[in-house]
Amino acid sequence: MILRYSRSVTALSTTFPSVHVLARQRYRAQRLDPSFIGSAGRRGILTRMRSTATVIGHFNARRSSFLRPTFAVNEFSPICWYASTTVPLRSLPSIRILFASQGGTAQLFANMLSDALDEKNVPNVTVQSLADDTPENLVTSSLSSSSDSYYLFLTSTSGVGEPPSNGKVFYDWLMSQSNDSFPTDTNSNNRYYALFGLGNSKAHPSHYNVTSKAMDAKLNELKVMTPLMPLALGDDGDCLEDDFDQWQEAIVEQIVSRSTLNGESSTLQDDNSATTNTEDAPHAAEAPTPEPTANSDITVPTESMQCPGAKSGYRRAPIKYPRVLMGPPASSGSNGHAVRRDLLDVAPTFYHERTRAFPVVHNIALNPVASSNGLRELCVSLPAGDDESVQYQAGDHFTVYPRNKDYLVESYLDFVLDDVDPHAAILGNVSSTSTNSKPYPHPIDISLYETLSHAVDLNATPSPSFARFLLDGEDGSMDYKGDIVRHGRTVLDLLLQNSRAGQPKKIALEDLLYQLPPMKARYYSIASSEHTHNRQIYLTYRPVRYVTSRGALREGVATSYLSGLTTGSTVIAAVHANPSFRLPVDPQVSVCMIAGGCGVAPIRAFLEERIQRAPNSNYGPGWLFLGFRDPNDAVYGDMIATALECGALTHAQVMYNNPLGGDGTASSLTVDQQEASRGNVSDAVRRNGAAILAHLQNGGYTYLCGGARTFGVAIENEVHQILQTHGKMSEEEATTYLQRLIHEGRFLEDLSD
């Protein structure tokens, strides 16, 4: 076989299929799609790998700024040809990245891990959901293979310690397996696994990462795979992205060091030099160096390359990700382009299977004199003729699918290269020449505008790798946790930072869509009882508005979406059962409800249920400790009074951080009332420590509702202290006692992030 000079990459690809290009750029080698060569030209290395031979040579090439079918290669000279020395491709290791994701973060991390391996030129990488195949095929498909196999699991924990819906079948299958389930001659020496769990120790301390812990313990027990490294737990209560970045770096380093090709590293080094051995390649010295062509830009008829996605007719080809294929506008209306309010009709699988459009009955501020971010109440009616999927009970959740504000979508569009038509339909992606091809991560047959509105979270913090990319690789000077996470910076913030006056930092469409975090459904506690309201659901929420430490104004994606809903509009949501968060069946059992701020929502539902059942129930003790910012922020006072009057409650204490009005003016409270109600909910819990201990020891149920990071932690610490002070327990005994209450289902939490 002789490598001949060819004048176009097309011809080279014909002679050498699946050719790859390594271009020297920013002191780092990158593998490029052969169809992309910068307009200023690139000098690099072409390689062709076969099962028995490798050819390496230099090239010089140029192309125009837009995607064209052919390119001029000014020169190509072989350096060396290694014959019959490479390991056959079938013996290369296989790497399966398997994710189970409820909100999309685990899937995003899985794709990022694939990208990181791709950058190191690691072949044979696939990304799959744990629901994409049968559990048997996912785990046992390589039992008889002689090559190394790597299984990289990423899974979150949903609900109250359950696996995500697309990982439940696999999880249940794995938990049911024993050593007898696999062939006796199974060899785990060449089968490795690593597992990254996603959880939140602040919001869900009692079931933090239980899914990943259980999977890791079972895989260790079965011994059909060897751990590549210890279980890694990502904590969204601190910095989940930073945890993943560190795990990813360690995983890639392990796989690169273990993968072998020609008895050495299988990766092509990320160095800006190429080491060659011309003594082993006699053809290299004989190869002629052709003269450059007179004109390296090739003119192509525009008719053959019309691209509906770009107003100019052409789009740049991406480097790292498969090219997004765009077609004519996805939808049109009287204004030329109507943007869908939701994706239920065109992309139902984007949502949970029970997602519906709920008509809005009212959306009101609960206290007219409260500040602009005072508590609000949303009431929706259940969709007609769909009883089974929307039935709920007090304690359940309402999962809302928000959309980004139009001004935010338009701001991002300003930074997309090539003046892409925002109303062009996205049809998927073009097959990538990369070994590690990636599926398009969002719904198809919707416009780019609709994708940015519904499918991605434009206010989310970018991943560490995306942040480095946006800052032009300034990874050495970037403290991700301190510079990005702590300040709540977004992709738009980093694009603006890296833009010059009047010259916005443009980004390829693919780089944006493949790396933006997916839009997650937001869980809201239902604030009503189905026994009180006929076919209606109430929510209590607080609009999130704040200014970051860098002076940027922020709005919560979901709460700003809810705030904008008007009577007659619809909210896209689903009822999510929460069977472990229920009132006791026996009305004589003591209950103690502790809540702060928005945590009043499930308490309202429980009070409605107890009030409705009061005439036929002989209730035991009922305690309520509730906290608000100030009297102007307080809500549902009349309902609390009714509950005390009918016996649904026996004790109630409302606390205020500021007993004066929110504007500093005198409130309706007397001086004595102000003094008694001043402080946090934890202060009221501490003052009633002896009564709370008796409640716990007599089999009572305790409900903790509110924010996880401060409120939930403070109340748990206070209860822990009550057990030590009034119960005369040691610190270890108090911890064991509280864990037993949680295990028995008598200390229940509904905490938000």
Keywords, separated by commas or semicolons:
Elongation Factor Tu (Ef-tu), domain 3, single chain, six-stranded antiparallel beta sheet, alpha/beta, 5 domains, disordered N terminus, 753 residues
Give an overview in words.
With 753 residues, the chain is an alpha/beta fold. It has 5 domains: 9-88 and 267-289, no CATH class; 97-258, Flavodoxin domain (Rossmann fold, 3-Layer(aba) Sandwich); 351-402 and 519-579, Translation factors (Elongation Factor Tu (Ef-tu), domain 3, Beta Barrel), CATH 2.40.30.10; 405-429 and 442-506, no CATH class; 591-752, Nucleotide-binding domain of ferredoxin-NADP reductase (FNR) module (Rossmann fold), CATH 3.40.50.80. Strands 6, 7, 8, 9, 10 and 11 form a 6-stranded parallel β-sheet that branches. The protein has a 6-stranded antiparallel β-sheet with strand order 20-17-24-15-16-21. Strand 6 (94-100), helix 2 and strand 7 form a beta-alpha-beta unit. Helix 2 packs parallel to helix 6 (240-258), helix 19 (681-687) packs parallel to helix 21 and helix 21 packs across helix 22 (731-743). The chain is globular, with a radius of gyration of 30 Å. The termini are far apart. Residues 1-90, 261-306 and 432-436 have low confidence and may be disordered.
